[in-house]
Amino acid sequence: MSTSSAPVPVPGPGAVSARSGASGSAGVSGGDGATTQPSGKLEQLKIIGGLVALGAGLLALVVVVIVALIVKPDTTGGAIATSATGVIGSIVGAYFGVKIGSDGTQKAIDAQQQEATKAQVFALHASPADADAVLAHAKELIAAQRG
């Protein structure tokens, strides 16, 4: 350990050094590993956008079914309504599937950035004399993870 009395700068939660070139984390991790989600206007827009997509899909479905049953009250109207239900349901389902996938990807990126920040803080506190041994150990661990 270093015995110098100069204060060591410690980055804040979600901060990333200039060397990495990455942006800061969207979520902020506490010491217990829990992540608090940002509560900005962008998140509110995402929620409202999802509800609008769901509402628009349901409204289109109801309109198609009503029009089909009014125009063709026999079995043809039922067939039109059934096919419209399948198509509109598939489109709305695909939208939410893509949305969930992209949200999961963003959470994984945020978690990776938080872990990178923690590693940088640990590196700031490491003794310069131990740097070569630490880098060698890190390379061994990376090689073992890759198989």
What this model shows, in words?
With about 150 residues, the chain is an all-alpha fold. It has one domain (about 40-145). About 65% of the residues lie in helices and about 5% in strands. The protein has helices spanning about 40-70, 75-125, 130-145, and strands at about 30, 35. A hairpin with a 5-residue loop joins strand 1 (about 30) and strand 2. The longest helix has about 50 residues, at about 75-125.
Keywords:
elongated, mainly alpha
Number of domains: 1
The percentage helix is 55-70%
Q: What value does the average pLDDT take?
A: 73
Multimeric state: single chain
- Percent in strands: under 5%
* Total number of strands: 2
| Secondary-structure content class | mainly alpha
Nearest-angstrom radius of gyration? 26 Å
Strand order of the largest sheet: 1-2
List the uncertain runs.
1-8, 13-36
Summarize the model shown.
With 147 residues, the chain is mainly alpha-helical. Helices cover 67% and strands 3% of the residues.
Q: How are the SSEs placed, and which strands pair?
A:
Layout: E1 28-29, E2 35-36, H1 41-71, H2 75-125, H3 131-146
Helix pairs in contact: 1-2
